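Course exercise 7: structure representation. Students receive a sequence record and must write out the corresponding structure in token form. The form below is the worked example handed out in class, using Amino acid ABC transporter ATP-binding protein (251 residues). Read each field label carefully; the graders check that inputs and outputs are placed in the correct fields and that the protein name is recorded exactly as given.

STUDENT ID: A-19
EXERCISE PROTEIN: Amino acid ABC transporter ATP-binding protein
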Amino acid sequence: MIDIKNLKKRFGDQIVLDGIDLTVGNGEVVAVIGPSGSGKSTLLRCLNLLEEPEEGMIQVGDIKINATSYTKKETYELRKQSAMVFQNYNLFKNKTVLENIAASLRITKKMSKTEAHQIAFGLLEQVGLTEKASAYPVTLSGGQQQRVGIARALAVNPTALLLDEPTSALDPELVSEVLQVIRSIAKKDTTMMIVTHELAFAREVADRVIFMADGHIIEQGRARDLFDHPKHERTKRFIKQINQSDEPVTI
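STUDENT ANSWER:
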């Protein structure tokens, strides 16, 4: 479902992604872990061209683009293949919960209001928020807002779901409700890439875990293998340090 070859991205003189090669299979859940500044979120954002790479090939579903030369139409077609769940929800403040989810269906799928709202309500049921359909985002907790964000992403029936630190902006007591929703989606064979600092969650949900540092994939493997028997010294240090402390890890 996702295929990346020799992906490179820099911000000024800083190389953020340095020749990334990665394939994600249909229905596979891949967690991306690593220290701050390792390129995790940039990798995810390059998949739908929210960040524009300088080199490389990106394929999501049936759409493939060459980073050195692509058209606006190709950008649009690539973005239709995936849906993004952001750290800070990015909900429309002037729309109700139901309208937030239905908006993408009205715009991209040209659905009627009735049909879009029917699908949106079904997705609210999936994330356990039907009672909040008429509420506005400002009245919701962070965990509830993120669950709405996940429902909105699922509304367009994406080839791949991309989640960028979906719990990082939440208070600790709200994290579990969002992770539970993601667990339920993972069980439905949804292709997902999740950038996360929740290592226990990554171990439980992911089919494969990727450890990144300094713009490179340092190590990857089955979740249990990588966490229990990491091969690279940097992976060992990262897992050990983050398990010992909630403080940011520098490697």
